[in-house]
């Protein structure tokens, strides 16, 4: 296996990890007005992700850095052609991060409601836009001989991409509901379980349509197996949540995201950005790659530092593993 293949897999793993971890963060943010009936419940919901949300974002930062260093042509074409979509994601993440930091700085209900709205918006926009971005990666975009995007923003909002955005939006919301069932107690946990059932059922239709579309238009035997397993995992999550097994339901949606993301990257391979105008202009893992020396240096750096990062993040989750109990949160 050559270094370009290794780094394609590494970037796919980083994005998959990001979607799993940040997916439930987005879900909690989107569900804040639905499950948080009063201030203490809303604070409890935020506290479930408070210690980890910023650490989860490290995955996408690392993925972007790896793409820039390992596949500079891919990075350049993606970030220029998808500029408005990625800018919308960035703005959403900034709004959300600001909401986490500033929500508790004021004492009035109006202050907290405004920042809650920012948290909801900052979670919803990236959850939808990431699906649009990844779907367009698989579907392909018009590229010229210099690998420059020749379409418009409206070309990125095609039916397949919009269905991908709806799928990630609902899937992350379901993932967040299962996470809250796992991380809270009492009536709040039960309401999260009930909401997870409704969201899971609502997710099944667009998710199945999107995955079938992917298989028909871009799939192979490997993607078929992965897609079938993803559908089974999504159904298992519903069944497990119905029986009250919150931890296993959360694991099932995490597995669903992992399998679906892997299927999309397998459908993309060996391209990294297909051209719909002329297949000769497609970016592949070979013509988009950096030099062999650069990839070699990056590989050694990853071997040394990646285990340390994973150990640190795992330790963070272990320290903050306890359920959040609403009754123990002081009345504001």
TrEMBL record:
Its main location: membrane. Keywords: Cell membrane, Electron transport, Heme, Iron, Membrane, Metal-binding, Transmembrane, Transmembrane helix, Transport. The chain crosses the membrane at residues 6-35, 82-102, 114-139, 159-180, 192-213, 219-240, 247-270, 297-320. It comes from the Bacteria. GO terms for cellular component: cytochrome complex; plasma membrane. It is a multi-pass membrane protein. NCBIfam families: cydB. Belongs to the cytochrome ubiquinol oxidase subunit 2 family. This is Cytochrome c oxidase assembly protein. It comes from Glycomyces algeriensis.
């Amino acid at each position: 296996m050559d270094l370009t293949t290794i780094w394609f897999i590494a970037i796919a793993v980083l994005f998959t990890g990001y979607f799993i971890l940040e997916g439930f963060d987005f879900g909690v943010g989107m569900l804040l007005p639905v499950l948080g009936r009063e201030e203490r419940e809303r604070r409890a919901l935020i506290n479930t992700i408070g210690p980890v949300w910023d650490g989860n974002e490290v995955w996408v930062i690392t993925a972007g850095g790896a793409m820039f260093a390992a596949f500079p042509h891919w990075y350049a074409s993606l970030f220029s052609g998808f500029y408005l979509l990625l800018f919308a994601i960035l703005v959403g993440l900034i709004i959300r991060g600001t909401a986490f930091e500033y929500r508790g700085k004021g004492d009035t209900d109006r202050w907290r409601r405004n920042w809650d709205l920012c948290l909801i918006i900052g979670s919803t926009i990236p959850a939808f836009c990431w699906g649009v971005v990844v779907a367009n990666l698989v579907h392909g975009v018009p590229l010229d001989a210099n690998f420059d995007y020749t379409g418009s923003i409206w070309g990125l909002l095609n039916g397949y991409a919009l269905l991908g955005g709806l799928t990630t939006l609902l899937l992350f919301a379901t993932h967040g509901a299962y996470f809250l069932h796992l991380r809270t107690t009492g009536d709040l946990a039960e309401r999260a379980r009930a909401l997870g059932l409704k969201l899971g059922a609502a997710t099944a239709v667009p998710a199945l349509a999107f995955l079938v579309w992917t298989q028909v238009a871009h799939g192979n035997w490997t993607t078929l197996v992965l897609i079938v397993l993803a559908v089974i995992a999504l159904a298992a999550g519903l069944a497990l949540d119905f029986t009250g097994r919150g931890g296993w339901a959360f694991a099932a949606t995490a597995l669903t995201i992992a399998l679906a993301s892997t299927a999309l990257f397998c459908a993309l391979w060996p391209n990294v950005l297909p051209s719909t105008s002329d297949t000769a202009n497609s970016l592949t893992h070979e013509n988009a790659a950096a030099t062999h020396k650069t990839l070699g240096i990056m590989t050694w750096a990853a071997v040394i530092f990646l285990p340390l990062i994973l150990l640190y993040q795992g330790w963070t989750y272990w320290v903050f593993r306890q359920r959040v109990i609403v009754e123990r949160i002081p009345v504001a």
